Amino acid sequence: MSELPSGTVTFLFTDIEGSTRLWEEHPGAMQGALARHDEIVREAIEGCGGYVVKTTGDGFHAAFGDGEGAVNAAVAAQVALVAEEWGEVDEVRVRMGVHTGPAVQRDGDYYGTALNRAARLMSVAHGGQIVVSLATSELMRDSSIELVDLGEHRLRDLGTPERIFQVCHPDLPGEFAPLRSLDAYASNLPLQMTSFVGRGRELVEITKAFDDARVVTLTGVGGVGKTRLAVQMGAELLPRFGDGVWLCELGPIADRSLVPEVVAAALNVQQRPGMSPAESILAACKNRQLLLLLDNCEHLLDAAAAMAEAMVRACPGVSVLATSREGLGVSGERILVVRSLGLPAADGIPGDSVEEADAVRLFCDRAVAARDGFVLDADNVDAVAQICGRLDGIPLAIELAAARVRMMTPGEIAERLDERFRLLTGGARTAVERHQTLRQAVDWSYDLLAPREQELLNRLGVFAGGFTLDAAESVGAGGAIDAFDVLDGLGQLVDKSLVVADTTPAGTRYRLLETIRQYALERLDDAGETDATRRRHGTWCAGFVAQASAGTRGPDEAAWLDRFEREFDNVRAALTWATGTDNAELAISLVGTFGYWSLYIRPVGYMLGPWAAAALATTGAADDPRSSHMLMLRSMDHLHHGRLDDAERDARRAVELIAEPDIPFSAFPWGALTLALLFSGRAAEIPDADAIIEAARATGDDYMIATVLVDAATRSYVLADLQRCQLFADEGLLLAQRIGNPTLMALSGGYLGAALETTDPVRARSVLEVAIEHGRTTGSRGGANFPTALGWLLRMGTEAANPRWAIEFRTVLEHSYEVGDSVSVFTFLNLYSQGLANTDRAESAAVLHASTELARHMANPISIAHRRDTHERLSARLGETRLAELTARGAALSYDEAVALAVAELDRVIAQDEGAT
User: Fold this and answer.
1) What pLDDT score does 792 carry?
2) What is the pLDDT of residue 779?
3) Parallel, antiparallel, or unpaired for β 500-504 and 507-511?
4) CATH number attached to the domain at 7-182
5) Which of the chain's ends, N or C, has fewer CB atoms near its CB within 10 Å?
6) What pLDDT shows up at residue 866?
7) What pLDDT is stored for residue 842 in this prediction?
8) Is there a common fold for 7-182 and 200-337?
9) What is the 3-class SS of 276-329, one letter each residue?
10) Could you tell me the residue ranges of all domains in the chain?
11) Cβ atoms < 10 Å from Cβ of 173
């Protein structure tokens, strides 16, 4: 078909929505309906100058030389389909996607990523809907066809987001549900910088495996593409799991005991009081429907298996997709071996044609990325086929080879492979030999590096979770390599596909594929440089933590917390090495001197308590001046998990240390002690603030002074000394505004609004509004982690029934619940029950009020003075008999049930507002 368009082509993909159901319900009528559908769509395509490339069951794949022709064909087909009388079938709804891009046309078919993009585009549409890509829309600027911008959406190929437009026509429906893109589902699946090639059979096989198994493990040699396949499979399975698909990368960790912690972080679950991390995960996921992707399990096999088995046993809606060199050994596990990519037929061995073989398609795709203008032609097709065959179809090896087209022809690459991969010329190979095949591939690429590039790659292997250029310069430099060498060498390693450069909103971030990282670490150890490089890595991490600790005290608090989260894996890896080598100085430096108010607005902050405990266990840590800060952090960890005696013990010891003459003053131990006593119901024992404030003033550090003033305002408010509370909060707010710290502005404003509650409610409301806005800028869901401003506001009048505050309060409550901050949860439940008592939901208020009684010793005593008044108001409304019944019901509620009841009440208020709207 010589008339088929080539070069830049516009593709139209169509598909009947719900065709399987229609065939099941109307098997006879569907035969005629499908024939009529085919006739209508084909006539529209050919009538608008298009070509039917192929039919796919109940859909069409068509090609056009111009975008307008493709869109006109789609409109003509949809109009005719809508007007058609379908009889028994009732209605045939077709979804359509149009995309324009470069494609290679050969033998009546097309090859290239543009086809995949068009198919993915169609898959997010609904029956009766036509969607087009940005590339196609650009060709329609002078057309009379109306396009509506639906915004950017991530498609299931996990590539860069696509801007999507809907085609509008007066004879077609105009309103549809949101697109079925990845944005419609909960997940943490990462953006992929390269296209997903092949694996159609594997995707079908894995999908079927989940029909009768809840643990599926993908096994195979390193570099065969298990991770990429698992991530793509996660995207394909998203519609099955209402609570999302969550990727947990085990590659960066070496300690099996950290597996529950890493899984919890991926699922956004934090340790609950009285529970281990694993038990907390099971409790949180008990009623969820989600898919957990456990990636790179082989070095932590027992721990990963235990986690997977526990989850599927305790959580009926949870399934696990794992990648590993071997099966997990879990009961009911389905093991699927990920084979090499399909190879061309050769020497009597069956296979696809050269152009259709997945291995060749992968090589060509990556070669085009390495060198613009690369095409598979008669001059290189045999060499490419030979390369793919010699590399046994292993994706990583193929990608490394394809990267060489920047400097070598396929023929030259094939000649070099002859020198290195003689094992691939033989017959059957064992699993160990296949592993050596990959090693030979990496060896080959490694041997092509200059000596300094090899040395740099070895050193970069110590990074976990990626790194920045400045980090690479600090860790990679040394000996014969200086910082300028690192810059050039890193560029070479990126060019040769040994280092991946990811473009992120925060700038370029680099990473090694896990197989390459493990290889680099082995080479580093062989060179005897492991300890020296680990030490440089730890020093860089400690310097970064010091910067982040200081940065969070100013106006850029959220940005520094973002950076700290990005470097979390690196800091954890450095801390693991420091504690393993008993390096107290480095371990303490890695924990940092973060202010506790800033830390606990993000889930990552809750990890520093256990880190501080690990640092304190190193030899000599107790004598370090910074151990007071470590004790403070450990005290806060005890506090959030309800271990109030331990929290008070550590806080008192931290206070004793800063009283010593050679240790600089810090506000944080005093604050930790204030909170420990406050949540123990012993606010009267909190030391008087005046001497502490004077000590803070002597430092000249506005952040320290403002922190002490917030703590003093807390104490004053608890003791009902609203005048002093207002004075402390007012001054604290002025200082917080001077340094621009959002968390301290939120907290100071919150206490100021609370102090003004009874004397100036109008100003109180205004101050609280501003405080909440400051809290939002921290990046925490719902504002600062202790957004007591919301609780105080909810106690005023009937604000508990205000939809806006209901949304805010639910966000804050869910955040505290998910990070395992049980003290804050009980505080919010207490406050909300008091606020709810002022509304027509008095019975629910009574149940919630009673539920907090079980943990009264953990509840925030800020509201204790209001509990008696709340009881009296509930008694007056409900009567003592009914109140006693509801109190008994509330007392029987578990922690999870109490939170669920509060969320349900908040959802009811929100839903009422949405219904009115």
Assistant:
1) 52
2) 66
3) antiparallel
4) 3.30.70.1230
5) C
6) 64
7) 82
8) no
9) CHHHHHHHHHCCCCEEEEEECCHHHHHHHHHHHHHHHHHCCCEEEEEEECCCCC
10) 7-182, 200-337, 358-441, 449-528, 573-771, 800-916
11) 14
Measured between alpha carbons, how far is 799 from 753 in angstroms, rounded to an integer?
15
Angle between helices 822-836 and 627-640 (to 10 degrees): 50
Task: Answer whether 467's CB lies under 8 Å from 502's CB.
Answer: no
pLDDT at position 420, please?
Answer: 42
Which CATH number describes the domain made up of 200-337?
3.40.50.300
CA 248 to CA 18: how far, in whole Å?
33
Residue 652 in this model has a pLDDT that exceeds 80:
yes
Residue 817 to residues 100, 636, 725, 803, 890, Cα–Cα distance (Å): 47, 16, 29, 21, 19
DSSP secondary structure string for all residues of 428-471: ---HHHHHHHHHHHHHHHHHTS-HHHHHHHHHHTT-SS-B-HHH
Query: Cα–Cα distance between 917 and 914 in angstroms, integer?
Result: 5
CA distance 99 to 117: 7
Rounded alpha-carbon distances, angstroms, from residue 399 to 113, 117, 132, 225, 402: 16, 21, 31, 11, 5
Residue owning tokens 């909060």: 729
Give Dmax over CA atoms of the chain in angstroms.
92
pLDDT tens string 189-246: 887 777 888 888 899 999 999 999 999 999 876 778 888 899 999 989 998 998 999 9
Q: How many angstroms separate the CA atoms of 627 and 849, rounded?
A: 40
Q: What is the Cα–Cα distance from 158 to 231, expressed in whole angstroms?
A: 9
Contact 472, 494 (CB under 8 A): no
Composition of the chain by helix, strand, coil, percent to 5? 60, 10, 30
Closest to 80 (Cα-Cα) out of 97, 68, 89, 92: 92
- 3-class DSSP assignment, residue 860: coil
Handedness of CA 673, 679, 684, 690 (dihedral sign): positive
Q: Degrees (nearest 5) of the Cα angle 535, 538, 544?
A: 145
Strands 215-219 and 318-324: parallel
- Within 496-605, residue ranges assigned H as helices are 514-526, 530-551, 557-566, 568-580, 584-591, 596-599
What residue has token string 């080879």?
A: 401
Output the six-digit token pair for 781: 């869901």
Whether residue 664 contacts residue 670, with contact meaning beta carbons closer than 8 Å, is answered with no
Other CB atoms within a 10 A radius of the CB of residue 89 amount to 20
Looking at domain 573-771, its CATH class is mainly alpha
What Cα–Cα distance (Å) separates residue 290 from each residue in 155, 221, 303, 317, 790? 20, 27, 20, 6, 32
